[in-house]
Structures are given as structure tokens and as C-alpha cells.
Amino acid sequence: MPHHLKPTVIIIGRPNVGKSTLFNRLVGKKLALVDDQPGVTRDRRMGDAELAGMEFTVVDTAGWEDDDKDSLPGRMRAQTEVSLEGADAALFVIDARAGITPLDEEIARWLRTVEVPVVLVANKAEGKAGDAGLLESYALGLGDPAPVSAEHGEGIADLFEGLWPHIGHFEKDAERAAAEAAEVGEGDEDDEDAPLGPLKLAIVGRPNAGKSTLINRLLGEDRLLTGPEAGITRDSISVDWQWTDPKSGEPRDIRLIDTAGMRKRARVTEKLEKLSVADAFRAVDFAEVVVLLLDATQGLEHQDLKIASKVLEEGRALMIAINKWDIAEDASYLFNGIRAALDEGLSQVRGLPLFAVSAKTGKGLDEMLRAAFEIRESWSKRVPTAALNRWFDDALDANPPPAPGGRRIKLRYITQAGTRPPRFVVFGTRLEALPKSYERYLVNGIRAKLGFEAVPVRVVLKSPKNPYNANRGGGGNYSTGSDRG
């Protein structure tokens, strides 16, 4: 998200309520010094924060504090006035364990007069010690408090829910700017939402499926050594190349990766098979779209499914091409049989693109490349949050979550946390009781309704207990896991 389009959220509160700890939690780094002594933060701190894909700039105002209690309210109000200029939302932090103090009440009275939206944050709310302060906080007249423990990362889902109505609209502005930047060729290469460059296409498959022959055919030259002996390619090779789509006449840049490298001739087929899998795994790291090449004379074997599963686990877009189609016997039966076996063996991604090709004659190769660009578009797609939640509400209405033991499972909202592959986070309560079948229902709905039919989709379930740490890579409370994507 371009920096100038990021909303600014300011953290406000009396000394020692945990503002710096919350700031550190939101930015994911220990940028602010945290100490039990009030006033330990000397400077205003700013950082880039992210909550379940929602990005914003957060400002820590703890530097306004000092030990002079008499001057503090006036100073805080004056400094808050300055900081709120240009702010899009404020987090007013209280200490739930300490309860509401006169200074909290004074700050709240003033905040009720400002135009900037305020989200009340009841910090240190872990356990029962904060219950009384949480109830007291309703009297501040600032709406429902978001109970959190900044120190332990608890309750951040409630914080997201409080902030989203006030700053969520910035996402649309960011999407518009990203589209404009793509048109003029701007963008950070390291940004997952940057404009797409050359298609990074890896060709994988068991030995002698015809990978090198296929690439030679695409390039129109004998760039890679080919021969009847499995394992003849010694090194992993990437070739930059431009393909002209015969349908549109448009030239498209491709980086082809041949993955047979590092394989040695082996007398034992089993050893060769293991090596071929290792090579495929290594090449997948560099690819966006992976073509798994099958041998029409051998059909689909267990080793092929093993490679395909690994590609999907790594989150890459996958296509299947049946090579040597020019010498295939009973072609229609073979094609339908492979389709059925793929749908059964890779049930997490039904309907993978399947092509009949011939490296020898060139049959089907242009259609395969055209589809590779299309599937990369899906793999890189971001769904606007409003459209995503409209689908989510419809999906819940059409098939409400079950109520095991009479207790309802509540799914609250969904956000897209990333692309390449598409990653989604669903927030809710009692998620540990949600059946796997319902998780599959959500994943299948995302695929069918939102345009992700043939790419791996990750859906992670987060309960309010500790969603923040989980979403930052800490393992998560409940997750569908990559093998379900």
C-alpha cells in the first residue's frame, strides 16, 4: 500500500497503561523502549502496522508523559490536539486492571468532542483481573471497549473489528493507486502486490517425461541436451524468452526453468526417482507457475501425485500437461482417466488445468502457455474486502455454521491477508469446534465464487484468544493448513 494512502492511527492514554507495548505489538518489532516507569518513552514513535492485512501508520504518544501530574492533563490535551490533526482514528488505551481513573475520564470527555473516530482499548484485560475495569469503561461514553492484552497479544481481533469501520475504506484508495502504478510501470519488485514481471514457469516431472524436449520445442532451438536416457540433463537451467501469443499477437516474457539438474545417471530406478523429486522441489522455489509433465505412454503414477502435492504445499499455481500425445493410445480414455485420478488424488484443488501436448509436434503448447498467464493472474489476485465480506455473508446465510452441543460457532468476518498464493483469515469464536467439512465449504466457495478455481488457497481460522501472534507466523490457534489449500 503506498505510504501516502496509509491511514494514521494514534495511540492515546494516561501514563503506564501500556501504550508502548501496544505499539510494539502492532508494528511487530520492539521499536519503543518498554519500562514500568511512567514517562520512559521520550519521543513520539511512528511505525508501519498491520492487522490481518489491514495496513496503517501507528503513532505512539507516550513521549508526552512526565512526572508532573498537575500539568499532565493540560499538556496531554494540547499535544493530542496537535497529533490528531491528520489522524484517521485514535486508540484510547485504559488499564482494565486499574479501572477508570479521573484522568481517564478527563481524556474521554475531551475525546468525545473531537471529530476523529475513537476506539476504546481496555488493555491488560487477560484473566479475570480486568473484568471490573472493562465494565466500568462503558461509562466513558466511547462505545464498546476492545479488551486486549498487548503484552500477550490477546484480543487483537477485537481491535481489528473496532478499527475496520473507521479506516477500512483506505483499502479501496490503495487498490486504485496500485492499478495506476501498474499502468505507469511503478512498483516494488519485493512487494507481493507489485506489477507482474516475466512469467516464472517451471517444468517438472518424472525422468524421461520429455521436459528438455518440451523446452527445446518452445524455444525453437536445441538449447537443452535431449536424449532417450533418463537423467541426461546435468544442471538446472533457466532461460529468458519471449513468446508471442498467436491468438492475440501479443509478445509475453517468460523465464523457463528446466528442473532436471543435479541428477546423475543411476542404475537403480528408485534412486533416480528420489533425485527427480528433489530436483523438482528445488525448482519450485523459483517458480510462479509449475507445469507437471506426464508421459502419455505411462499415465499418472504415484510419483507424479507426490510432486504435485509438493507444488501445492509450496503455494505455487499448478498445471498438468500430458506429453507425447502424438503417440498416445486410446487418447480420450487416457485423458478422462487422468482427470479423474487427479481430482481424487489432489482433492484439495479440483479442476486443475489439464492439457494434452506434444513436445515433438508442438500440439497444445500455445494453449498451455496462455493458460499459464491466466492462472498466474488468479494466483496474484486480491479481492476487495467489501466484495469478500459480501460473499462471506452470503456463504454463511446459505449454509450457517453448525452448533455442536447447542452452542453456536460464530464466524465474524474475513480478510485477505496476502496473494501469491491467495491467503485468507477468518475471525470468529469457538473455531476449534468447526468441522473440517465446513472449512472445505469455505475454501471451495472462495474458489468457485471469487475466481480462484485452479490455484492453492489458504484459509486460516483465528479465534480472538491470540490471533495476532498466529497471524504473524506463530503457528495459529486453528488453521486449515497448507495441505487443505
Characterise the protein shown here:
By secondary structure, the chain is an alpha/beta fold. The protein folds into 3 domains: 3-173, P-loop containing nucleotide triphosphate hydrolases (Rossmann fold), CATH 3.40.50; 199-377, P-loop containing nucleotide triphosphate hydrolases (Rossmann fold, 3-Layer(aba) Sandwich); 385-479, 2-Layer Sandwich (GMP Synthetase, Chain A, domain 3), CATH 3.30.300.20. Helix content is 35%, strand content 20%. It has helices at residues 19-27, 72-84, 102-111, 131-136, 156-167, 170-183, 211-219, 269-284, 302-313, 331-345, 365-379, 385-398, 436-450, 467-474; strands spanning 8-12, 45-51, 54-60, 89-95, 118-123, 146-147, 199-205, 237-244, 251-258, 289-295, 317-323, 354-356, 410-418, 423-429, 458-462, 478-479. Helix 8 (269-284) runs parallel beside helix 9 (302-313) and helix 12 (385-398) packs across helix 13. The two termini are 26 Å apart. Pfam families: KH_dom-like, MMR_HSR1. Residues 464-485 are annotated as: Disordered. GTP 2 binds at residues 205-212, 258-262, 323-326. This is GTPase Der.
Strand arrangement across the biggest beta sheet: 2-3-1-4-5-6
Helix-strand sequence: EHEEHEHEHEHHEHEEHEHEHEHHEEHEHE
Count of individual beta strands: 16
Query: What kind of sheet is the major sheet?
Result: 6 strands, mixed
Mean pLDDT: 77
Q: Output the CATH class name of the largest domain.
A: Alpha Beta
> How many alpha or pi helices?
14
| Gross morphology | elongated
* Gross CATH architecture of the largest domain: 3-Layer(aba) Sandwich
Q: What amount of the residues lies in strands?
A: 15-25%
- What separation lies between the terminal Cα atoms? 26 Å
Q: Roughly how much helix do the residues carry, as a percent range?
A: 25-40%
Low-pLDDT sequence parts: 30-43, 175-191, 232-236, 261-268, 465-485
